[in-house]
Amino acid sequence: MDKFLNVKIVFIDIDGTLVNNRKRVTLKTRKAIRGLVYRGIYVVLTTGRNAFHTIDKSRRALSSSIIISSNGSEIYDYKNKKIIYIDEIDNDKILEMWRFCNLNKVGVLINSLDGKYINKYLIGKDKENSILITNEKELKKITISQVVLISNNLENMMKTKEFINKIGLCITSYSESFLDNTISDRYRLDINNKGVSKGKAIKILLNELNIKKEESLCFGDYYNDIDMFMECGIKVAMGNACDDLKKISDYVTLSNEENGVAEFINKYL
Question: Cα–Cα distance between 229 and 200 in angstroms, integer?
Fold first, then answer.
Protein backbone atom coordinates (compact mmCIF):
# COMPACT_ATOMS: atom_id res chain seq x y z
CA MET A 1 0.00 0.00 0.00
CA ASP A 2 1.24 3.48 -0.90
CA LYS A 3 0.85 4.90 2.63
CA PHE A 4 3.34 2.38 4.01
CA LEU A 5 5.94 3.51 1.47
CA ASN A 6 5.91 6.95 3.11
CA VAL A 7 6.57 5.74 6.66
CA LYS A 8 9.70 7.39 8.08
CA ILE A 9 9.33 6.59 11.78
CA VAL A 10 7.86 3.74 13.86
CA PHE A 11 6.99 4.04 17.56
CA ILE A 12 6.81 0.81 19.58
CA ASP A 13 5.57 0.31 23.14
CA ILE A 14 7.58 -2.24 25.16
CA ASP A 15 5.49 -4.31 27.58
CA GLY A 16 2.80 -6.35 25.86
CA THR A 17 3.99 -5.11 22.47
CA LEU A 18 7.70 -5.34 21.67
CA VAL A 19 8.47 -8.09 24.18
CA ASN A 20 6.73 -11.41 24.75
CA ASN A 21 5.31 -12.48 28.09
CA ARG A 22 8.80 -13.54 29.21
CA LYS A 23 9.92 -9.92 28.62
CA ARG A 24 12.17 -10.92 25.74
CA VAL A 25 12.68 -9.43 22.28
CA THR A 26 12.54 -12.38 19.90
CA LEU A 27 15.04 -12.94 17.10
CA LYS A 28 12.28 -12.49 14.52
CA THR A 29 11.39 -9.09 15.97
CA ARG A 30 15.03 -8.00 16.11
CA LYS A 31 15.54 -8.88 12.45
CA ALA A 32 12.41 -7.02 11.37
CA ILE A 33 13.43 -3.89 13.30
CA ARG A 34 17.01 -4.06 12.07
CA GLY A 35 15.70 -4.12 8.50
CA LEU A 36 13.75 -0.89 9.05
CA VAL A 37 16.72 0.90 10.64
CA TYR A 38 19.00 -0.28 7.82
CA ARG A 39 16.60 1.41 5.36
CA GLY A 40 16.80 4.69 7.26
CA ILE A 41 13.48 4.41 9.11
CA TYR A 42 13.56 5.54 12.74
CA VAL A 43 12.37 2.91 15.23
CA VAL A 44 11.70 4.59 18.58
CA LEU A 45 10.77 2.65 21.71
CA THR A 46 8.03 4.61 23.48
CA THR A 47 7.18 3.53 27.01
CA GLY A 48 6.31 4.31 30.61
CA ARG A 49 9.50 2.54 31.66
CA ASN A 50 12.53 4.50 32.86
CA ALA A 51 15.34 5.51 30.51
CA PHE A 52 17.78 2.81 31.65
CA HIS A 53 15.30 -0.01 31.01
CA THR A 54 14.29 1.54 27.69
CA ILE A 55 17.88 1.94 26.49
CA ASP A 56 18.59 -1.70 27.36
CA LYS A 57 15.56 -2.91 25.41
CA SER A 58 16.36 -0.54 22.54
CA ARG A 59 19.82 -2.03 22.18
CA ARG A 60 18.49 -5.56 22.40
CA ALA A 61 15.86 -4.79 19.76
CA LEU A 62 18.45 -3.20 17.42
CA SER A 63 16.25 -0.12 17.15
CA SER A 64 17.26 3.54 16.78
CA SER A 65 19.17 5.29 19.57
CA ILE A 66 16.37 7.78 20.22
CA ILE A 67 13.97 6.71 22.97
CA ILE A 68 10.81 8.10 24.57
CA SER A 69 10.73 7.02 28.21
CA SER A 70 9.01 7.67 31.55
CA ASN A 71 5.52 8.04 30.02
CA GLY A 72 6.75 10.63 27.53
CA SER A 73 8.54 12.95 29.95
CA GLU A 74 11.93 12.23 28.33
CA ILE A 75 13.18 12.08 24.76
CA TYR A 76 16.81 11.01 24.72
CA ASP A 77 19.39 10.06 22.08
CA TYR A 78 21.66 7.70 24.01
CA LYS A 79 24.16 7.23 21.18
CA ASN A 80 24.91 10.96 21.03
CA LYS A 81 24.10 11.52 24.74
CA LYS A 82 21.69 14.26 23.77
CA ILE A 83 18.56 15.25 25.71
CA ILE A 84 16.02 16.22 23.08
CA TYR A 85 13.26 16.98 25.59
CA ILE A 86 12.63 16.63 29.31
CA ASP A 87 9.62 17.69 31.37
CA GLU A 88 11.23 18.31 34.76
CA ILE A 89 9.13 18.14 37.93
CA ASP A 90 9.39 21.23 40.15
CA ASN A 91 11.77 20.61 43.06
CA ASP A 92 9.34 21.98 45.65
CA LYS A 93 6.78 19.35 44.61
CA ILE A 94 9.44 16.64 44.76
CA LEU A 95 10.29 17.64 48.34
CA GLU A 96 6.61 17.65 49.37
CA MET A 97 6.10 14.21 47.88
CA TRP A 98 9.33 12.88 49.41
CA ARG A 99 8.35 14.01 52.91
CA PHE A 100 4.79 12.69 52.62
CA CYS A 101 5.95 9.27 51.39
CA ASN A 102 8.56 8.94 54.13
CA LEU A 103 5.96 9.86 56.75
CA ASN A 104 3.54 7.24 55.38
CA LYS A 105 6.18 4.58 54.69
CA VAL A 106 5.64 4.55 50.94
CA GLY A 107 8.56 3.54 48.72
CA VAL A 108 9.92 6.16 46.33
CA LEU A 109 11.81 5.38 43.13
CA ILE A 110 13.11 8.43 41.27
CA ASN A 111 13.86 7.87 37.60
CA SER A 112 16.40 10.31 36.20
CA LEU A 113 18.68 10.28 33.19
CA ASP A 114 21.45 10.56 35.80
CA GLY A 115 20.47 7.37 37.63
CA LYS A 116 17.89 5.73 39.90
CA TYR A 117 17.37 7.01 43.44
CA ILE A 118 15.27 5.53 46.25
CA ASN A 119 14.12 6.11 49.82
CA LYS A 120 14.44 3.51 52.58
CA TYR A 121 10.85 2.28 52.21
CA LEU A 122 11.14 0.99 48.65
CA ILE A 123 10.29 -2.70 48.29
CA GLY A 124 11.11 -5.21 45.56
CA LYS A 125 13.80 -5.59 42.94
CA ASP A 126 13.83 -1.87 42.06
CA LYS A 127 16.33 -1.43 44.89
CA GLU A 128 18.97 -3.04 42.67
CA ASN A 129 21.46 -0.59 41.12
CA SER A 130 19.74 2.32 42.88
CA ILE A 131 21.22 5.04 45.08
CA LEU A 132 19.69 5.41 48.56
CA ILE A 133 18.98 9.04 49.50
CA THR A 134 18.98 9.80 53.22
CA ASN A 135 19.27 13.58 53.03
CA GLU A 136 16.56 15.41 51.11
CA LYS A 137 19.05 18.14 50.12
CA GLU A 138 20.46 15.62 47.64
CA LEU A 139 17.18 15.80 45.70
CA LYS A 140 17.99 19.34 44.57
CA LYS A 141 20.97 18.04 42.58
CA ILE A 142 18.85 15.68 40.47
CA THR A 143 16.87 16.45 37.31
CA ILE A 144 13.65 14.50 37.88
CA SER A 145 10.95 13.86 35.29
CA GLN A 146 9.24 10.80 36.78
CA VAL A 147 8.71 9.31 40.23
CA VAL A 148 7.35 5.82 40.91
CA LEU A 149 5.65 5.21 44.26
CA ILE A 150 5.43 1.62 45.51
CA SER A 151 3.91 0.01 48.59
CA ASN A 152 2.16 -3.17 49.73
CA ASN A 153 -0.24 -1.11 51.86
CA LEU A 154 -3.31 -0.13 49.84
CA GLU A 155 -4.63 2.30 52.45
CA ASN A 156 -1.36 4.25 52.46
CA MET A 157 -1.33 4.30 48.67
CA MET A 158 -4.88 5.64 48.50
CA LYS A 159 -3.86 8.49 50.80
CA THR A 160 -0.80 9.06 48.63
CA LYS A 161 -2.95 9.19 45.50
CA GLU A 162 -5.08 11.95 47.02
CA PHE A 163 -1.96 13.87 48.05
CA ILE A 164 -0.46 13.66 44.56
CA ASN A 165 -3.60 15.19 43.08
CA LYS A 166 -3.59 17.87 45.78
CA ILE A 167 -0.08 19.12 44.92
CA GLY A 168 -0.89 19.28 41.21
CA LEU A 169 1.00 16.31 39.82
CA CYS A 170 -0.42 13.61 37.56
CA ILE A 171 -0.71 9.83 37.92
CA THR A 172 0.17 8.63 34.42
CA SER A 173 0.14 4.89 35.10
CA TYR A 174 -0.61 2.42 37.89
CA SER A 175 -0.60 -1.28 38.67
CA GLU A 176 -3.72 -3.14 37.56
CA SER A 177 -4.41 -4.24 41.15
CA PHE A 178 -4.91 -0.55 41.99
CA LEU A 179 -7.91 -0.39 39.68
CA ASP A 180 -10.07 -2.92 41.46
CA ASN A 181 -8.47 -2.88 44.92
CA THR A 182 -7.46 -6.52 44.62
CA ILE A 183 -5.05 -7.83 47.23
CA SER A 184 -1.48 -7.37 46.05
CA ASP A 185 2.02 -7.33 47.48
CA ARG A 186 2.89 -4.37 45.29
CA TYR A 187 0.79 -1.33 44.37
CA ARG A 188 2.45 1.14 42.00
CA LEU A 189 1.79 4.71 40.87
CA ASP A 190 3.79 6.50 38.15
CA ILE A 191 3.95 10.25 38.78
CA ASN A 192 4.70 12.95 36.21
CA ASN A 193 3.83 16.56 35.54
CA LYS A 194 0.33 17.24 34.25
CA GLY A 195 0.16 17.09 30.48
CA VAL A 196 2.88 14.47 30.14
CA SER A 197 2.00 11.72 27.67
CA LYS A 198 3.51 9.54 24.98
CA GLY A 199 1.46 11.46 22.43
CA LYS A 200 2.87 14.82 23.44
CA ALA A 201 6.43 13.47 23.23
CA ILE A 202 5.76 11.98 19.81
CA LYS A 203 4.48 15.33 18.55
CA ILE A 204 7.64 17.03 19.83
CA LEU A 205 9.93 14.44 18.26
CA LEU A 206 8.17 14.54 14.89
CA ASN A 207 8.68 18.30 14.83
CA GLU A 208 12.34 17.88 15.85
CA LEU A 209 12.97 15.39 13.02
CA ASN A 210 10.80 17.30 10.51
CA ILE A 211 8.58 14.26 9.95
CA LYS A 212 4.86 14.58 9.20
CA LYS A 213 2.23 12.80 11.28
CA GLU A 214 1.06 10.81 8.26
CA GLU A 215 4.61 9.49 7.87
CA SER A 216 4.51 7.82 11.29
CA LEU A 217 3.31 4.42 12.50
CA CYS A 218 2.88 3.05 16.02
CA PHE A 219 2.34 -0.23 17.85
CA GLY A 220 0.64 -0.47 21.25
CA ASP A 221 -1.47 -2.62 23.53
CA TYR A 222 -2.83 -0.69 26.52
CA TYR A 223 -4.81 2.37 27.63
CA ASN A 224 -1.71 4.56 28.07
CA ASP A 225 -1.08 4.08 24.33
CA ILE A 226 -4.32 5.81 23.33
CA ASP A 227 -2.78 9.30 23.22
CA MET A 228 0.15 7.86 21.25
CA PHE A 229 -2.29 6.52 18.68
CA MET A 230 -3.91 9.94 18.35
CA GLU A 231 -0.61 11.49 17.26
CA CYS A 232 0.42 8.86 14.68
CA GLY A 233 -0.65 8.41 11.10
CA ILE A 234 -0.97 4.60 11.10
CA LYS A 235 -2.15 2.90 14.28
CA VAL A 236 -1.52 -0.79 14.90
CA ALA A 237 -2.98 -2.55 17.95
CA MET A 238 -1.60 -5.85 19.16
CA GLY A 239 -3.85 -8.92 19.18
CA ASN A 240 -3.62 -8.82 22.98
CA ALA A 241 -4.49 -5.10 23.15
CA CYS A 242 -7.35 -3.70 25.21
CA ASP A 243 -10.63 -3.23 23.33
CA ASP A 244 -10.55 0.58 23.59
CA LEU A 245 -7.24 0.67 21.73
CA LYS A 246 -8.42 -1.75 19.06
CA LYS A 247 -11.44 0.46 18.41
CA ILE A 248 -9.28 3.42 17.35
CA SER A 249 -6.63 1.39 15.50
CA ASP A 250 -6.26 1.09 11.74
CA TYR A 251 -4.97 -2.47 11.97
CA VAL A 252 -4.84 -5.28 14.51
CA THR A 253 -1.81 -7.54 14.26
CA LEU A 254 -1.04 -10.79 16.07
CA SER A 255 -0.33 -10.82 19.81
CA ASN A 256 3.03 -10.15 21.44
CA GLU A 257 3.35 -13.89 21.99
CA GLU A 258 2.98 -14.42 18.22
CA ASN A 259 5.58 -11.84 17.09
CA GLY A 260 2.84 -9.39 16.14
CA VAL A 261 5.23 -6.48 15.59
CA ALA A 262 7.52 -8.49 13.33
CA GLU A 263 4.64 -10.04 11.41
CA PHE A 264 3.18 -6.63 10.59
CA ILE A 265 6.56 -5.10 9.66
CA ASN A 266 7.40 -8.03 7.37
CA LYS A 267 3.99 -7.89 5.69
CA TYR A 268 3.56 -4.16 5.17
CA LEU A 269 6.89 -2.34 5.61
Answer: 11
